[in-house]
Predict the structure.
Amino acid sequence: PNFLWSYQYPHNVLSVGERIPGCVGEQFCNQLPFPVYPTPLYEVIVCALLFLVIWVLRKKIKIPGLLFSIYLMMNGV
């Protein structure tokens, strides 16, 4: 599906881009002129995977602060 690699964010809140033909009203009638990567979708997927990794490691790591350090490193990557 196209929304996985390009998205124009129709009806965006900032009213940035071109006006959508046939849209009624002053607000939320714009979309970006060129499709962009849907980074919020990618970020949700990666953060869910990070959560699963941390959840699996929580019982195995006994050193205080190590799990949090792993989270910070993986979140930074």
Notes: The first strand starts at residue 18 and ends at 19.
